[in-house]
């Protein structure tokens, strides 16, 4: 059975990047003709991804995998990638720290940063004049559809 809508929402974080292409190809294999597969992952330059990079030198980068997908599959699929602005607003440092802890735990933390270091980063990069915090969490959305020739046949 194939689906009209196949969604992969923020799960690639938990799969090694070297395996993303195989997983995306598997998801696309479940797509019915005329259907769509949608992938969602934070944009590599979002506030949370910048924080991951600051502490661990790592970013999640979907564009490279999609470029490889396009090169491998040619016109078999139409692939559209957009970045949608988004943010998380929190009223205080404690709640902002909880968001940061969630995001930082996307990686295996053999040597985690100290709470003091994280809080300092949050205050420096996300604090607002009214005491609240605003973290950019811009999202990459990828839509994959069968190419026009495949849908017509």
List keywords for this structure.
single chain; alpha+beta; Rossmann fold; four-stranded mixed beta sheet; two-stranded antiparallel sheet; elongated
Structural features, described:
This protein is 40% helix and 28% strand. A four-stranded mixed beta sheet has the order 1-2-6-3. Strands 4-5 form a two-stranded antiparallel ribbon. The chain is built from six helices and six strands, in the order βαβααββααββα. The longest helix has 12 residues. Strand 1, helix 1 and strand 2 form a beta-alpha-beta unit. The two termini are 19 Å apart. The chain has one domain: 3-Layer(aba) Sandwich (Rossmann fold), CATH 3.40.50.150. The mean pLDDT is 91. The relative contact order is 0.22. The protein is α+β, with helices and mostly antiparallel strands. Helix 1 crosses helix 3 and helix 4 packs across helix 5.
Would you summarize the structure shown here?
With 153 residues, the chain is α+β, with helices and mostly antiparallel strands. The chain contains 6 helices and 6 strands, in the order βαβααββααββα.
